Amino acid sequence: MRSFTVKNSKKFMSALLAGDVFDDFLLCEAHIKTYNSFSIDGRIIPEYYDDYEFGYEYSMWKDIRPLCFDLIKGRILPVSFHFILQSTPEMTKEMLLGEVPEGTIKEVKGFTLNIRYQDGVISIITATSLNTFIPDKTPDEIWDSYMSDMLKLRYDFVD
Predict the structure, then answer these.
(1) Distance CA 81, CA 75 (A)
(2) Within a domain: residue 159?
(3) Residue 140 lies in a domain
(4) How many domains does the chain have?
(5) Residue range 2-7: average pLDDT?
(6) Lower CB density within 10 Å: C or N end of the chain?
(7) Is 10 among the domain residues?
(8) Alpha helices in 46-101 (DSSP H)
């Protein structure tokens, strides 16, 4: 688990809400406080669809992103927001393949990003979601290293 503080909020928010940087993630939850408080459970409700073929438990961030953008955009900054994004099973497996035993891969449900805006500060916390406890911390280390490289080197969002 690593914690990052975003140094350029405008650049990060543009990437999060208007860009495609996080589009390959799933949205577990979103909580946005502006003129009202909005909560989104990212869990897909199969009964809503005639022919459910999405393959994921949660909606893709790219599908919910425009709604979140509409709730946040404007002259007045939001009071707060909190997004919980999770890697897809394919992304999780790809990151772990060849790095940890096959049994460990099956126990990792996904990698998560907790993105929180509060009191003018955007923070990001990485975490690993497991199906059951595993003593091996290699998945955490792989995820933390990947996100550190992505946030620092590739996009220059954090120090």
Answers:
(1) 16
(2) no
(3) yes
(4) 1
(5) 95
(6) C
(7) yes
(8) 61-72, 89-96
The pLDDT confidence band at residue 14, using thresholds 50, 70 and 90, is very high
Name 6's Cβ contacts closer than 8 Å, sequence gap at least 6.
Answer: 12, 121, 122, 123, 124, 157, 158
Tell me whether residue 125 is in a domain: yes
Tell me how long the chain is: 159
Range of the domain at 97: 3-154
The interaxial angle of helices 89-96 and 138-148, nearest 10 deg, is: 100
The string of pLDDT tens digits covering residues 22-75 is 999 999 999 999 999 999 999 999 888 877 676 899 999 999 999 999 999 989
